[in-house]
Amino acid sequence: MNKERIIGILNEAVEREIGAVFQYMGQHYRFPKKTHPIAREMLERIAVEEMKHIEAFSKRIVALGGQESIKSSKVIWETDFSKMIKLDMAIEDEAIAMYKRHIAICEEEGDTETKAIYEDILADEERHHKLFAEIKKILEEGIEG
Ligand SMILES: [Fe+2]
Ligand SMILES: [Fe+2]
User: Fold this and answer.
1) Hey, is 110 helix, strand or coil?
2) Ligand minimally distant from the alpha carbon of residue 13
3) Which of 36, 51, 110, 129 could serve as 92's disulfide partner, Cβ 3.0–4.6 Å?
C-alpha cells in the first residue's frame, strides 16, 4: 500500500469537508430563525456532520503517520437562499464523485480500512444531497419564508 497516496487523497477530502463546514454553518446563521426555522436547523445539523467527517478522515491520516491538513477548499458566499441550497446540492454532488474516485484508489492500494471510512461518509453525503433537495422544495413551495 502506498501510504503517501492514501494520505494525499484523505487530505483532499479533509479540505473539502472543512470548506463544507464553513459554507453550511455560514448559511445556517444567515437564515432567519423566525422565517426559516427548518432550513436554519438542517444546515447546522449537516455542518456538524461534516465536522465529524473531518474527524474521521483526520484520524485515519494520523494513524497512517501523516499530517492532517487545516486548509479549506473554496467557500462561496451566496445571499440568495434558493441559490445557497442549489450550491450545496452541487457541493454534495462533487463530494459524492470525489469519494467514489477515492474508494477506487483505496481498492487499488488494498486499503480496506480507509475504504470503509469513505463508504460510511459517502452514504452521509448521499443523504445530505436528499436533505438539500427537500430544503429546496420547502423554499420553492413557500412552506417557510
Ligand atoms: Fe462530508
Ligand atoms: Fe455532506
Assistant:
1) coil
2) 1
3) 129
Domain boundaries defined on the chain: 3-140
Which three cell numbers, joined as nine digits, stand for 140? 420553492
The model carries a pTM of 0.95
What are the pLDDT digits (tens) for 14-25? 999 999 999 999
Point out the ligand nearest to the CA of residue 46. Answer: 2
Which amino acid type is present at position 56? Answer: A
Distance 92 CA to ligand 2 centre (A): 5
Q: How many Å lie between the centroid of ligand 2 and the Cα of residue 144?
A: 23
Give the closest residue to 128 by CA, choosing from 10, 24, 26: 24
